[in-house]
């Protein structure tokens, strides 16, 4: 049995519940370090980190063949500004000011990449300071803008990636990012989009991570129920402002070196600092292991919107639709799009189970090729997890209030197809 098939059989024959995504205490704040590529399988990652929702660190050996590790870095481990300008000089990039707080985040602007590199060089020459503040290039969709560039290859451990599979299919967006920032740049306290998993690889430089297991963030909220902007701020020790702070666990701390990859579990809040001039590659992703967590997050978000505008429920005839619109503007998705998300993921797996994979598709970097790499039983596992969430979505009262006639196929028909595909695959 190959490693992908073993991983899938492990997943399928054990009925892991979504409760495995809950808060976990790591002994002494320990985070496993994965040293050798050849001795660490997908099944190891699935069993020991995805399902129990544990963080881990992959050694630099897992990224040493990447084009970015070879070309974006100088001989002494610094960003290779000349090479980057040659390849991406005319791009326009999103840049955040780490020295300014605006609505609990850093304000962003769009800058020409060559202007940002000019700023960065001056920032270094001035002892890592500037009258413009500490500017951090964040959330750059470089892979989408420059698909021909040899930048990196997604490790197999992160290849079951429903978010990017879906957004690639509708050709609207993706959740693959490049970050570049000087020493001292940082990201405030947050959890990732849709409570997804994330992985972050340092092309060069070093990062310091402060991680809180899912659920611990409840102890870090202020007296109004708001999360802190900076989890290291002295004000958190003021009991009148943060009454439950003393009940929180200390954060799990990671210092990530050049070339290493950090795996951030679903729903874990974190704060990140660049200890040196640093470039990193980051993905957010959801799969069968945490799609129930994503669904729970969406329900919580809708409930929060409903509470905020409950006084307008009677005057507004389509109040429930307005709630969906507000939720989508805040999170990027509503219940009907979540249904379409599940549908595309399911149909890709059903297609492979029913029709197999032709040689042309398997040779390409496609979702079906990724499904084939992980094995047919992994596709079955994905479908079983999709059935559970889709069943819950179909029974949800807020979902049933929407006009579902535009959904094709209807939820009942899709559920029937999923169950039939699973039954057939297991014969």
From TrEMBL:
State any single GO MF term: catalytic activity, acting on a protein
Per its UniProt record, the required cofactor names are: Fe(2+)
Q: Which organism is it from?
A: Oreotrochilus melanogaster
Q: Which UniProt keywords apply?
A: Iron, Metal-binding, Oxidoreductase
Protein name from the UniProt record: 2-oxoglutarate and iron-dependent oxygenase JMJD4
Organism superkingdom:
Eukaryota
Q: Which GO terms describe its biological process?
A: positive regulation of translational termination
Name all JmjC domain ranges: 143-302
């Amino acid at each position: 049995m190959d490693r992908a098939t073993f991983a899938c059989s492990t997943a399928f024959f054990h009925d892991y519940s979504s409760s495995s995504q809950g808060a976990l205490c790591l002994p002494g704040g320990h985070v496993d370090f994965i040293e050798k590529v050849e001795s660490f399988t997908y099944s190891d990652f699935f069993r020991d980190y995805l399902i129990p929702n544990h963080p881990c660190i992959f050694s630099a050996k897992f990224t040493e063949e990447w084009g970015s590790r070879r070309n974006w870095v100088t001989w002494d481990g610094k960003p290779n500004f000349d090479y980057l300008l040659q390849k991406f000089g005319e791009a326009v990039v999103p840049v955040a000011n780490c020295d300014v707080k605006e609505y609990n985040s850093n304000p962003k602007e769009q800058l020409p990449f060559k202007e940002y590199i000019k700023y960065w060089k001056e920032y270094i020459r001035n002892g890592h300071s500037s009258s413009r503040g500490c500017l951090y290039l964040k959330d750059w969709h470089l892979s989408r803008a420059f698909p021909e560039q040899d930048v990196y290859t997604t490790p197999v451990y992160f290849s079951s990636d429903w978010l990017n599979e879906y957004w690639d299919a509708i050709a609207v967006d993706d959740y693959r990012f490049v970050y570049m920032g000087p020493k001292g740049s940082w990201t405030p306290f947050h959890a990732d989009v849709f409570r997804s998993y994330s992985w972050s690889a340092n092309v060069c430089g070093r990062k310091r991570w402060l991680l809180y297991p899912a659920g611990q963030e409840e102890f870090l909220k202020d007296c109004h129920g708001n999360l802190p902007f900076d989890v290291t701020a002295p004000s958190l020790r003021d009991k009148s402002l943060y009454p439950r702070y003393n009940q929180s666990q200390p954060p799990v701390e990671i210092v990530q070196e050049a070339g290493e990859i950090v795996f951030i579990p679903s729903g874990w809040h974190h704060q990140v600092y660049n200890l040196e001039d640093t470039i990193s590659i980051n993905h957010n992703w959801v799969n069968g292991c945490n799609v129930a967590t994503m669904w729970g997050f969406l329900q919580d978000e809708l409930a929060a919107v409903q509470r905020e505008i409950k006084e307008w429920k009677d005057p507004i005839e389509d109040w429930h639709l307005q709630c969906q619109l507000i939720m989508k503007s805040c999170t990027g998705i509503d219940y009907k799009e979540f249904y379409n998300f599940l549908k595309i993921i399911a149909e890709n797996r059903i297609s492979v189970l029913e029709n197999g994979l032709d040689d042309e598709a398997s040779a390409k970097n496609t979702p079906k090729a990724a499904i084939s790499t992980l094995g047919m039983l992994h596709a079955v596992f994905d479908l079983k997890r999709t059935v559970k969430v889709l069943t819950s979505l179909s029974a949800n009262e807020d979902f049933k209030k929407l006009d579902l006639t535009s959904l094709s196929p209807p939820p009942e028909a899709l559920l029937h197809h999923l169950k039939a595909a699973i039954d057939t695959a297991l014969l």
